[in-house]
# Entry
Amino acid sequence: MPEQHHLIVGPVITEKSSAAFQARKEYAFRVQAQATKPQIRAAIEALFEVTVTDVRTLVVRAKRKSYGRYVGRRPAWKKAIVTLKEGDAIQVFEG
# Structure
């Protein structure tokens, strides 16, 4: 299993995730496919020094893309939606 700082690939900053942050203080991260919820919780708490109250995960399906006659696929990836304790914040999303 990868180290904690390798479990979190990066933040997912989209219009929908920004709205979830504003409304419910939920942060979305792209994580390794084999990462489990307890590992994600521990990694977020260690990296950002916050208290995680809830972790939800989902696998984003692969997309078929075509460019003219060439057809390919984007890979599937795993997303984690993390809710923090009241008063905690992650600066990546607020900047």
